Amino acid sequence: MALDLVGRPLAVSSPQGRFAAGAARLDGRTMTSATAVGKQLFATFDSGDVLRVHLGLYGAWDLYGDVSPLGDGARARSSLGAPRVRPGAVMDAQPSTRRLRMGEAESVLMVDQDAWPPPPIGQVRVRLDSGTVVADLRGPTACEVLTADEAALVRDRLGPDPQTVDDVDAAGQVVVDRVTRRNVAVGQLLMDQSVVAGIGNIYRAELLFRARLDPWTPGRRVPADVVRAIWQDWARLLADGIRDGLILTREDLDAAGRAAALHDPTLRHWVYGRGGLPCRVCGTPVLVEEMATRKLYRCPRCQT
DNA sequence: AAAACATGCTCAT
DNA sequence: TGAGCCTGTTTTA
């Protein structure tokens, strides 16, 4: 997404108005690089400023124009983040819809070719417009302009991200240390972005089930090898998720099951979102509890 | 129509 | 620990 905006001067605005000052600071500058670390996007501009965006629970990018992987010059609208644009959710001159890649990870709606630039839909905090690509940001939990130093400080507070570390194995040792020295529940530590970056509620539940580990186990009671295995599993699941544009955490599915899971969210996970339903391994009802105000899913029999 | 809910985080107490 | 933020979909009344 961001790569479609790198290298050309951008018109930056805040249709909603809440980011007017930040937009003015970036307007006319050229984005030179964009990197995601954990759940955050850092886009650097030729002025040295960095746009930091965190989508949070509700944030999303709406993309219009010649956006990869569309690449066919279509004037199209797609979205990244949650909630997704669902086919048919937005009707316009050309109601034809199609899906890209897998499932509903990326939904595309054709838009009126004559309406360019497209009118903002909803509360658009910031619009980045390269002339051929428009990116609209809605509902982010964070959207701010930082100096390079300020951005570095934010990054330094994050634990390792398998996608950005130089050495995955060495980074794993950092995570081992940060988990095994704490008395806090491992389920809570995995969601702590300063311990390891990027794990959310779905991956927390699924990683711990795959490791057959009770989320309530204090960090210091978890064997180092188990933490290391979870880190390696996280690196793999994240790479899969990026490749597929979808969180699918079951490796027990055959081709048909996989195809079904793309269509049906309830088939994608071992325990996440399956409270009360039978564990896929042992049949015991999946427990739903609260951990630090977030829902925690686990199998009381498989995870010890 | 209203309420509940959601892949998240920050701040105050 | 709880409130607040922010947007959209799904479920309930």
Your description of this structure?
The protein has 304 residues and is an alpha+beta fold. 25% of the residues lie in helices and 23% in strands. It is built from seven helices and 13 strands. It has helices at residues 20-26, 148-156, 168-180, 186-191, 201-210, 224-244, 255-263, and strands at 11-13, 31-37, 40-45, 50-54, 60-65, 76-81, 97-100, 106-110, 124-129, 133-138, 142-146, 287-291, 294-298. The strands form three sheets. A seven-stranded antiparallel beta sheet has the order 1-9-10-5-6-8-7. A hairpin with a 3-residue loop joins strand 9 and strand 10 (133-138). Helix 3 crosses helix 6 (224-244). It binds a DNA duplex (13 and 13 nucleotides) through helix 5.
Give a quick precis of the structure.
The protein has seven helices and 13 strands. It has 304 residues and is α+β, with helices and mostly antiparallel strands.
